[in-house]
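#structure-requests
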Amino acid sequence: MQYGPVMIDIEGVELSSVERELLQHPRVGGVIFFTRNYRGIDSLKALVADIRETANKKPLLLTVDHEGGRVWRFTEGFTKLPPARHYGTLYDQDSSAGIALARNAGWIMAAELLDCGIDFSIAPVLDLGTGISAVVGDRAFHSDPAIVSILAQAFIEGMNTVGMSAIGKHFPGHGGCAPDSHIAQPVDPRSLETLFAEDIIPFKNLSAVLGGIMPAHIVYPAVDTLPAGFSKRWLQDILRKELQFEGVILSDCLSMKGAEIGDFVDRAEMALGAGCDMVILCQQKRDLVENVLENLGRNATVESSNRLQNLAGKFYNQTRVAQAKPVLSAL
C-alpha cells in the first residue's frame, strides 16, 4: 500500500468517530501532533496505538514539532531541551563541546519520541539566526551558515543513531525577513545569488543526510512570484535538480497565512504539483478536511510513497533512552 499525500491533525487525546473515519481515508498518509494531544507518556502511547490500529495497517507517518526551546509539544516526562541557539553559543566558546551537545540532544529527542511510537520530529531548523526574524529567533543554531551546517549535522547524526530521519526547515531560509509566515505573507527581496551565498548553504551542505526538507511559505520575487512551497522553480529546479536532494519534501501547514492561495483544495493541488510529497493540513474544521480529501485530484506517486517510507521510525528498546539521558546533564 502507498502513503496518502495528506497529513492531518486530531483535536484531543482520544479519537473522535469522525477522526476514525478520516484516518481510514486513502489520501491520509500522516498525523501531526500538538500540545493539545499530550496528557502524559502513557496517554500518548495509547493514542498512537489507537491511531495505528484505526488505520488498519495502512502506511501512516506520525510526527510532531519537537525542536527544543519554545517549540516543544510534549512536556512532562520528556527531557526539556534548550533552543538551538544554546549549542551555537557553546560552540563559540568550545566548538567540540557545542558539537557534542548538539549530537546528544538529537539523540535523546529522537529516542524519547521513537519510544512513544512517533516516526520523526520536524527538526532541525536550518534558518540563519540573523536577528531579523523573531519567529526564527533562538530556534536557529547560529548566524554563520557554516556553523549552522556543522551543528545541524551533529544534531541529525544523533537522531539517525537511534533510527530517526531528520527534516530540515524552512527552505530556502526564513531568517532574512521579519514577518512571521503563520500570520503574514513574508516577502524576501534578495537575489538568488545572495540566498545561495547565505541561507541555502546549510540545505546544500546537508542535502545528502536529510530525510526531508520543509519549504517556507515565503515569496522570493527575484526567483518566483509564488511562495517557495508552491513553486516548481524552487522545489524541482533548485532543490531537486541543482541541490540534488532526493528525500521527502513536506509542506508546511496549508492553514498558515503565508499559504493563502485559493481554497484549501487549490493549495494542496498546487503544493503537490510543485513537488511536495505530502502536505500538512491542520487547525481546521473536520468538514473542510473531508472536502480536501474528497476533492483532491492527486494521490501520492509511487516515487513519493517510496520516499515517505524512508521517514518511518526505527523503533527500539527503551534502554537506549536511559543511556542517552546522563550525557545531557549539563542542559
